Amino acid sequence: MMMKETISIDEFDGKKFKIRFVEEDDNRKAVLTHYLHNYHNGVKKHYEKEALEYLNQIIEYKNQEEELGLVNEVALQQLLFEVENVPFPTPKDYTFKFIDLFAGIGGFRLALQNLGGKCVFTSEWDENAKKTYRANFGETPFGDITKEYTKNYIPDNFDVLCAGFPCQAFSIAGKRGGFEDTRGTLFFDVADIIKRKQPKAFFLENVKGLKNHDKGKTLATILNTLRNDLNYYVPEPEILNAKDFGIPQNRERIFIVGFHKNTGITSFDYPNVLNQKITFKEVKEENVVDTKYYLSTQYLQTLENHKARHEKKGNGFGYNIIKDDEIANAVVCGGMGRERNLVIDHRITNYTPTTKIKSEVNKLGIRKMTPREWARLQGFPDNFVIPVSDTSAYKQFGNSVAVPAIQATANEILKLILK
């Protein structure tokens, strides 16, 4: 196993202590940060034994044995500072607990923390997304949620399960299509956790296409599993658009919510849309952006040729330029994600290429949106840290949920379960 060590020298009461941090590709970083994040509440007991074992491995003492208690406290306070001194700490007076599955960069977490929630478990397999999550929330997500040893870290007695699980086809063996027919898919793992932990509510998000996926069989199986196999009240799923919740992005996603039978909840209304028009200019970069975001003349010509070929065939494929008074297309990773959200920005002053392009920077002011603009289009505030490369950032924000739509829906859930 590849390991990387970093060593810091700390001084307390005139004495120096060496603290060694070992970075490893396993769940120990997740265990430790989850333990520290729950240090002041009862949930820490769930992670405590393994976390303390890990602390013993990463802290090396240079003083005498009788002083270990003092050094241990110094090291612990340093580690607590690292996980608590982040842009989005846990609310001090939280009113409910939730878990964050397929967490990405924390869109669900940000929304539910804004509503007074405490995240007690999170999982995400992508290593770059974990970096962004840790930078903003001070917590390293656990890894593969399909593994039994990862599921074993999930504590009991949380209120809401959140998951933006991928859309996958099911191999439906039975006549109805239910829990057993979802085995081998990531939805099965979500359903399995709901079955084991029995949260008061769950909140699932997926692409709009889930509604008609496999001629509607996929959604029908999901709803049958949640309603009949797991015995939750699940109202009809709703497709919500991010543009109706205060951000200028045309992004439709299907939301599925459910309530435990013990809550007695038998009706639910999705949030009302906001009568508020917001356009791209309100999320546009305030200052001149780096030349690297501007298209080269050669690449722009390639896009124009590509669009012209499809127009001749009657197709609508091709690049799009979003005007300042318009709303953006959905930001997605891969394919034409960035090219469908080009903008015109004449503020450029330096046309010297800053990347290895084969031609000149175009003089029309056509550029890609920046990662920060994509962050704003998904409802992330400007103090949200982007610690990864642009390529990773586009992927992460393209895969994320739209925070305001999530928050508005979660608020309606909480109105019911916190009564």
TrEMBL record:
PROSITE patterns: C5_MTASE_1, SAM_MT_C5. It holds the Pfam family DNA_methylase. Coiled coil: none annotated. It catalyses: a 2'-deoxycytidine in DNA + S-adenosyl-L-methionine = a 5-methyl-2'-deoxycytidine in DNA + S-adenosyl-L-homocysteine + H(+). Its EC number is 2.1.1.37. Keywords: Methyltransferase, Restriction system, S-adenosyl-L-methionine, Transferase. It is an enzyme of class 2 (transferase). The active site is at 167. One of its GO terms (molecular function) is DNA (cytosine-5-)-methyltransferase activity. NCBIfam families: dcm. Belongs to the class I-like SAM-binding methyltransferase superfamily. C5-methyltransferase family. This is Cytosine-specific methyltransferase. It comes from Flavobacterium terrae. The lineage of its organism: Bacteria, Pseudomonadati, Bacteroidota, Flavobacteriia, Flavobacteriales.
